[in-house]
């Protein structure tokens, strides 16, 4: 083991930190069970956890299966339930298909009628007048309130245009932050403060809302963190998500192994997976690439373009049975010429 110093992260020369990290993460990964949990208050949302979550992290999946944002509130709001509720309504992503009971298309008159759900409108703090004005502003269509719904006059009887308008109308964002998803209010038992949990990952849009604490709000979408804060923050977020997923499974892995994996995935300035389309597929060694996947493809490509393998890595040396350049194999011995002269050959008897 490395000598204990003030810097606990020092390692011995030649220590295979990559192999140790891979074993330390991979071995407990085989003990994981498919354990998932429901997000309280968010209907039909099950957060991805366990091995599937580890796989989507190390494969650098652009969009998590279940994006989640933890939204912390500024002082003055975080202890007031009413203010937290108002803030949640500003963030909650509400589209027309969430508040519409049904939509009726009248092709002969060129009109579309949207029957709104009054209960949904009240729960989101919206009115028919607001929804009608939103339609006119966003879609540039004439909208009037009639009875229990809103009638949109298309001024055309073209079936294709009416159907296209209906689809756009039902997808239209009525209120909230685009991509924020539905949220719920929670309370921290330790600090007694309220915070929001949202089933979306538009962290940039969420942070633009007044009352949101920008210093603590975070998301499990590593690529969203990368786009907003840069590669260093993405590397840290990746390590945190890996650790959190393992901890949920009651598995303890040293932070150094997870940090090394995260650093390797982000060292190029972008987030790359560890598979054949990422780190393993971009190794300089031909044999190292061929040993992982698509063996024939790599060998034919190397032969066609005259690639040279310097055999400086671990995988390629194991492949040909040569001493690997780690541990004692990383040490080279040399003898001075003058010392060679002192060595007396054994006389033949």
Q: How would you explain this protein's 3D organization?
A:
- With 349 residues, the chain is of the alpha+beta class.
- The protein has four domains: 17-65 and 220-266, PTS-regulatory domain, PRD; 69-92 and 180-207, Alpha-Beta Plaits; 94-175, Gyrase A, domain 2, CATH 3.30.1360.140; 283-330, DNA polymerase, domain 1 (Orthogonal Bundle).
- Helix content is 41%, strand content 14%.
- The chain contains 15 helices and twelve strands.
- The protein has helices spanning 17-29, 50-58, 81-91, 96-99, 118-124, 128-139, 159-171, 203-207, 222-229, 231-248, 255-266, 286-292, 295-305, 314-320, 337-342, and strands spanning 37-38, 46-47, 69-72, 94-95, 100-106, 111-116, 142-146, 149-153, 173-175, 183-187, 194-198, 218-219.
- The strands form four sheets. It has a four-stranded antiparallel beta sheet with strand order 10-11-3-12. A four-stranded antiparallel beta sheet has the order 5-6-8-7.
- Strand 5 and strand 6 (111-116) form a beta hairpin.
- Helix 12 (286-292) crosses helix 14.
- The longest helix is centred in the C-terminal third of the chain and has 18 residues, at 231-248.
- The mean pLDDT is 85.
